[in-house]
Each structure stands twice: as C-alpha cells, then as structure tokens.
Amino acid sequence: VAAVRHAQHQARAGAGAGAGAGLVLGVAHGCDIEFWQRGRAEAGEEDLLIAPRANRTTASVPAAGAAVHAPGHLFTRLAPAEGWQPATLVRTRPEFTTRLPDEIRFPIDVVYTWVDGSDPAWRRRRAEVTACDADGPYHEQAANDARYANRDELRYSLRSLHMYAPWVRHIYLVTDDQVPPWLVGSHPGITVVDHREIFDDPRVLPTFNSQAIETRLHHIDGLSEHFLYFNDDVFLGSPVTPQDFFLANGMTKFFLSRALIPLGPIHPGDVPVSAAGKNNRALLEARFGATVTQKLKHTPHALRRSVLAEIEREFPGPYRATMASRVRSTSDISLPSALHHYYAFLTGRAVPAPLRYDYFDLARPGIPARLARLLRSRHCQAFCLNDTVSCERDLADQLALLRPFLDAYFPVPSPLERAIARQEARQPCPSPSPSR
C-alpha cells in the first residue's frame, strides 16, 4: 500500500510534465472493503462478527474484541523493507497478528553486476588484458562490445525493483572501479562493491569475465544468506513477492528454460553459455549421476550464500579456474545462474517453479512490436533485454528503441537517482542511424 501511495504521489507530481512523466494506476491496484455481519456461535450465545468470505485465519471474531495496531507486512507481501521508509502500522484485531507458516521472515538482498563499457579507463584495462592473449577470445561472443555495452539499463532495473519489490532489504552493486554518475552512492539502501573487495587473489584482476566475477558474489561482506542476483538487463515487469523466489523454509526457486544444453563434449563453436552449461553438467554427472539438459531462464536468480560456498569447496579446481579466467573461456562454469540451482535441487535445497517471463534479443527483428505488446499488457513478472551479437555502432539505434519504452514502463525514479539525473533521463535519446 505504501509503495502504491508513493507511486500515486509521483504520478500526480508529474502529471503535467509530458508523456511518460507519471504512472497511471488502474483497478488492479484497488482494494475490496468487507462488511462483517453480527452473528452468534453455533454452540453459544457469544456475540460475533462473521467474515463475509473465507480468509486464512478465522471465520469470526468477538464483536466486543479490542483493536490493536500491527506492522503492515503482516497484511501484504509488498510491504517496504525496514530502512527504506518508516514502518506502516495497521489497525486490526489480535487474531490477525499471528504469523502464518508460509510467511518469509528472513531478509532478502539484491546483488547487481554492472560495467560501463564506454569508460576510457576501463577500455584501456581491457585492451591490456586482451592484448596478452595471442589467440584472442575463443568465441566472438566471449568478449565482443555487446557484452559490455551500457544502455542505462541499470537505472531502469533499479526503478523496477523500487516499484515492484519494495520488500528488498539492501542492494549491492558490484563494479570494476566504476560508479554510475546518476547514482546516489551514499544512499543507505545501496552499497557499491569494487572487485578488489571480493577477490582474494589480486593477480586475477582486472577481470572482464562476468562468470569469474559471479564466482565471488557470496564473498560480499554483509550480504544476506538469501539474495537475488540481477544482471542489469533484467527487469521486474509487475509486482513480485518474496514467495515468488523462496519458500519460507529457506529453499530457493529456479526457473527452467525450454532451451537445451547441447549434448556432447565442449566444441570450439559452442557459444559461451553452452560451454559453461556443458561444464556444469559434467560436474553434476560426476557428483550425483544426474544429467541436466535444460538451460535456465535469464531471470533474477534466487541464491543462498551457504550453497555457493559449498560449491566452492566441492569443486575447487573448476571454481578457481573460472575465477582466474579474465575473459570467458571454454573451461568456465556458470555458478549463480545455473550450477547453484541444479546443485541445490540435487541436495534438497531448491525447487523448480513457474515465473511469467519473456526474453528479448535486441539483435533480432520484430522487437519493437513485442516491446509495445509488453508495455500494453505488463503481463510478465520479469523480462530480459539482452544483446550478445550487436556491434558498438548499433548502440544509438538500440537507445532510440529502448529509452522511450523504459521511460514509459518505469516513469517513477527510484530514491537511488540523483535529482539532476532524473531530468537528464527525460532528455531525447539519440536518433537512429539513417541506414537503419
């Protein structure tokens, strides 16, 4: 409720600022008002208030019972986490202040990995590392420009988190000595973590391999046991709850894709995600005798620090090799996005689950029409705007497509954005190239 009220206030504040400046909330964000009728218990004379429809706690309460005040998170799974705004107290009856067994009580943090591939200092560091590799990357998708392009997705992904998952406790942003210029780095809700803080071997830095960086996420100081891992091209598309990603007993959920990991050994033509999938599969076959065939969706990944640490101990060779690989390699494993889920499942700590999701490859035709449909329906709980093959000259065209879409989908700035940056985000995006 508090998050909705905040969005309504922001929408009213921006009502005259032009298209995309406000957020219109429809009937789906309303509430029902119930009128409990007086009645008596079947076996006695007690004066009761009878519920007009079923609920999960009680069918009636004493009519003369006293009212109490309870925290708002007992009545909605979308209550903001402590620290982001003052706790909301709700007037209710004592019967409704009990905690139900499926209520998630543990804190949930979010981790992002982010890079600005246009940063000259970063590009110099990357050039020095890639120049040392005489053979170059093993595959064109292992270190191409599309992998490091910055389309300002992080700003909008954080907006989606603020709009649709206010229950997140804290956000950690893992970067290579970079901070987005629009970010309020001093905000108590976010911590910027440099690679040097989580890698225990400085000889493997700088690294330009996201799979290497991902091997160290569970070493972030202060990170909660249960957390969500986002790439900056992943967005929430509608309200989600902690129960969409975790069970109250601590188990994690994962989301299988219909895409398959190619059979057979590593091949020079394997794209990086397939090579890592094959390496994951070999480890799981040797350890559990189970052959995994499906890839995982590019969603927020529900993870546990203890499981990641256990995998580090269980497979020290592949783990250390991936950590030390400064660009993607055929020997890499994909720890948080795949291996964690299957390992946790095979050890009884994770379950497959559904999630309304869509994937958009920006290099493919038909994307504008698909994005327009998504904007109209907002039917996805999460979606990914990914690109692994475009070159740097395509960036202006992609910005011309994405900026209006993202501004319309996520018009409310998060508290993590500087005020001046909010105005800059509304500036016209670059025009697409005439040849396209």
UniProtKB/TrEMBL annotation:
UniProt-listed GO biological process terms: polysaccharide biosynthetic process
Location of the Stealth protein CR4 conserved region domain: 373-427
Domain Stealth protein CR2 conserved region: residue ranges: 147-253
Keyword list, A-Z: Exopolysaccharide synthesis, Transferase
Molecular functions per Gene Ontology: transferase activity, transferring phosphorus-containing groups
Keyword Lipoprotein: no
Pfam families membership: Stealth_CR1, Stealth_CR2, Stealth_CR3, Stealth_CR4
The Stealth protein CR3 conserved region domain, residue ranges: 297-344
Ranges of residues in domain Stealth protein CR1 conserved region: 106-129
Stated family: Belongs to the stealth family.
Name the record gives this protein: Sugar phosphotransferase
Organism in which the protein naturally occurs: Streptomyces sparsogenes DSM 40356
